[in-house]
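Blinded run. Sample ID left blank on purpose so nobody reads anything into the name before looking at the predicted structure. Input follows.
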Amino acid sequence: MFLGRVVQQGEPLWLPEDRAWALALLEVEADACPDCGQPWSQATAPENEFAYKADLLMCHACATSAKTVRAHQDKRGSTDGLHVHLIKRPTNDGR
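Blinded prediction complete.
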């Protein structure tokens, strides 16, 4: 959790170091693939064509959401404006 610093009266909200970190983050985010998040400069380099390995992971929350929407569509339900609200069920051990 980022708590930051307490800005006293008369102090600037952003210190030079704060601005440098914010600008660095913008640079990193601008170089990120919007799908996988890997740096464009590395992920698109020809020499890295075989440098990545991918694993398939099942997100059970997304799978439940997709199945629920598909069942709704199968009953001819409209998906216009549809949002899915997910709630994790409690387990037997109370988690």
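Unblinding after everyone has recorded impressions. Residues 45 and 72 are 43 Å apart (CA to CA).
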